[in-house]
Amino acid sequence: MELLYEINARLWLTELKDKYQDSLFLIDVPDDEWTTIRNKGFEWIWLMGVWETAEVDDLDRYPFLKSVFDEALPTWQKPDTVGSPYSIMKYSLNPYLGNKGDLAELKSKLNSFGIKLILDFIPNHLSYLTTYLQTNVDYFIHSKTEIRERRKLFFHTGTNYIAMGKDPHFDPWTDTSQLNIFNEKTRLFMINNLRHIAKHADGVRCDMAMLVLNDIFNSTWGWLLKKQGFLIPQQEFWSIAIQEIKSEFPEFTFIAEVYWNLECKLQDLGFDYTYDKRLYDELKNSTGANIYNYINRNFPFQEKAMRFIENHDEERAIKVFGSQKSLAAFVIISTLPGMTLVHQGQSIGKTVKAPLRLLRIKDENIDRDLNAKYEIIFQFLSNIESNVSKFSFIKITQAWAYNDSHYNITSWIWRTKQKFFLIVVNYSSIMSQANLKLPKDILVQNNLIFSDKYGEKEYIRDCKSLIEEGLFVELKPYNFHLFEVNLKPL
Length: 490
Known about the structure:
The chain is an alpha/beta fold. The chain is built from 16 helices and 24 strands. Strands 1-2-5-11-12-13-14-15 form an eight-stranded parallel barrel, surrounded by four helices. A six-stranded antiparallel beta sheet has the order 16-18-19-24-21-22.
């Protein structure tokens, strides 16, 4: 159970420059900023968007961006715009964020605070302006002649037609050039980029990691690559890359952004954590029973899942879920084994989704009530982290006959010899009741004191009734208990 904090690096640094009225690079960020994050329990920081990108060219190429910019920053000007962090020129630190050598120093600094650093790795493409198109065009999918029937997938450099990066279900990303992952030279080039990153970070978040799986890549580009003599490789890129990097950097962590029910496949190929978009969708659209069953049914996968209720791609949680429901959703995702992503601004109720090509967004007031509630949850998580030994699900039964509201309740427990932490959530829009059947081997005292760290109440229950009847709970819509229970007399 680990917490990762996602920071939009360029946006954050711009905010810090305004805050301190000073010109800063990442290496100059005051220690208090990092320690504040660590003190909330975050063991990982993902600095999203640190690599060098091209300057934004004529925005008329991307007419949709103007309306996005208008919503996030009505007063935006051209100097507020930057290149997409997922259309990188090369894996060197963006000059806006610092100088060569700063990342290694920053990693050491964060490690000294007990924080591990995650950076981006984009396996599918580079910028359409990258200089590698002139020096190593064979790294990319290209053709000397125009392919008229698929001309919308390519741009012309004057000497070659270069494929644009593509998801098979959507139009290409027009500011990118598609890497040819079936080319052995390209694979070696990308593994060397990973090796470079591993010297400057503790792990990578791999963008759209499933796009370079052999079958998906072949379904997208095989029609051309087969004609050019590129056959499907015998091994997956990820199995080779992860094995090579971990042989040199055993503790290096791989996180996959992945969809289409391919999470388990990428875990099998060596990823330490994979996105759990399916749980996010369940939390948006379902109630407790479906969520509880989904987590329980997929539990081996869940231990390597990275969960979220917002990130830079998704809409802000406060807009999707509302205040109370977003808290309940966060309690569910953060108290499970695996990793939880918390997005910059999430815990203070930010409603504006930051476009990745803006250096600033409009100011918003901090939701201090929401933030205070997050702080309670963070503290509860920290208490579990320092004591945890075993996770298990709780059996949930009817509170009384013909009352099916127990299906709205989700519950699980973290146990040590000294105490246990019981999480109970009513993930529905109605008042719900249930009886919880706690493990009998912890019910050996006369009485137990259930201290609710969120509701700031204590409940004394005798173990005999807990064994015979269970722990009765009644919760308002999207409310929850965060119980801490000592198993030995204080």
